[in-house]
Amino acid sequence: MEENQTQIVSDAVDYKGIPADRTTSGGWVAATLILGVELSERLSTTAIAVNLATYLIGTMHLPSATSANIVTNFGGTAYMLSLLGGILADTFLTRYRTIAIFAVVNALGTCLLVVSTWLPQLRPPPCNPARPNECVEANSLQMGVFTFSLYLYGIGLSGIKSSVPGFGTDQFDKNDEKEKLQMASFFNVFYLITNIGTLLAVTVLVYVEDKVGPSWGYGICSAFMLLSTFVFLSGTKKYRYKETPGSPVVQILQVLVAAIRKRKVEFPSDLSHLYEDPSQELRLSHTNRLRCLDKATIITSKDAGTREFLAPNPWSLCSVTRVEEVKMLTGLLPICATTILFSTVYAQMGSFSVQQALTMERSIGNFEIPPASYNAFMIGSILLTLAIYDHLIMPLFRKTRYPQGLTSLQKIGFGLFFSIIAMVGAALAEMKRLSVVKTNRSTTLNLTVTVSGFLLVPQFILVGIGNAFIYAGQLEFFITESPRGMKGIGTGLFLTTISLGFFGSTILVEIVRKVTRMNGGRDWLAHRINDGRLDLFYGLLAVLSFINLGLFLLCAKMYKPNPEQKLAIVDVPIREETA
């Protein structure tokens, strides 16, 4: 009997709703089935995103800046919807159902992309090589079908991205020492899978899209997602299911509403009389930050039942711990805000940098590198940076007083620093490319300049190094520094910084275009990249990144993590509510 009890996972159930048996559920077998969906998602998303600008310019004949904005808007929307997908999974659906439903939606989106790119009626006619300046742009119907397919895919992506990591970790019991170590390994495998999927996409699938046709590439993506969804569903009886505690967004709203409703109530003379839930085991001590939120913890005569420790109305009275959790989450926002710009820099690798590669010599013998495949240098540098840090740098740290290595904030700082160097390098490379354009203006008619595409490799590598540091730093910071019960929101903040960075790129492009065209000036981001001044745009990003790094260092210095402490329970007198 006792032996059977040790095989039960206390906080998980199986597909029948009974306590899960660790010998027949969860573990690496179940986690591997879930990782198949992540591999397919990364494969599809990267194959679509990195080659999107090429398709929009080369096939749909859209202007350079318009294409770049479509790319960044798609990325921004997908990551923003991931936050909503997480809320949906925690509040209404389980992670399992969210993955199953949104994986099908994702596959449907890629199927429609196959149709959109395959039917001649949904594409404008090819350009006349003799008159490249008279290409016909895609009409509203063609762009409407393509955009609908793209964003349907993005909706499916949001549910997968928000739920796969959480459901994967649900398959391991953190109270079991062996499975706790397996859970730690799961994060490493998860990140490895995402990079493998990305690398396959920017090499194999991009080559298929470039040489055979985009419809073939999207068709392969659809097949992979449908296959991985079938494999995922086949493991239904193997999974462990954990009850979600409810949406932390509701908790945040409850604190705000309660604080607003009691904004005129006076604080008690002894702040230890603020309400604390006696049933809450882990508590946070009261702090003096954001005192306005503390109004939600004041007990008034309307909070009936509080003295008898009955459950109060959470929209009227919140515990100190609940309020402090919201304060802690608010404290993350300055760090969150100063990491947004890196994603704006990162977005250029899939938009303007791909457009640069499209105009340059990319041949190695008889083989021509697809423009979007230059992202392989970025992915390679990410993997190499992580390997060097884990196997060379960390062993050195373990011999010092800092065996834990770089802190999460230090990693973020390094990532922001490399983004500055990357944009300086990108500006110099573009200056060289434009100088060749200026020397031989005839090359601009064919859109190709006699400059090796390998000139762009340093900017891809530098952004990759920065991404390796900042991704690891952000993920660690937002998860470990988020309060208990709000880890999902912490992950959501991480995804939101990426989303806002992509949207920030769109806004910056529009501002630059309007400002540089004033009074008959030269548009930095002209219809054709050879007619613009992309080097100055990269220089502007370098300056903004330098300023942003300074703001980040200031916020990091001011940031103070909140230690969790138990709060003593004292008698709590009722106060009369003033008018």
From TrEMBL:
List the subcellular locations.
Answer: Membrane
Kindly list the residue ranges recorded as spanning the membrane. 70-92, 99-120, 140-160, 181-208, 214-233, 372-392, 412-429, 449-472, 493-516, 536-556
Gene Ontology CC: membrane
One Pfam family name from the record?
Answer: PTR2
Top-level taxonomic group: Eukaryota
Q: Which GO terms describe its molecular function?
A: transmembrane transporter activity
Q: Which UniProt keywords apply?
A: Membrane, Transmembrane, Transmembrane helix
Known InterPro entries for this protein? Answer: MFS_trans_sf, POT_fam
Membrane topology label: Multi-pass membrane protein
Q: Does the keyword Transmembrane helix apply?
A: yes
User: What start-end ranges are recorded for coiled-coil regions in this protein?
Assistant: none
What's the family? Belongs to the major facilitator superfamily. Proton-dependent oligopeptide transporter (POT/PTR) (TC 2.A.17) family.
PANTHER family in alphabetical order: OLIGOPEPTIDE TRANSPORTER-RELATED
Query: What name is this protein filed under?
Result: NRT1/ PTR family 6.2
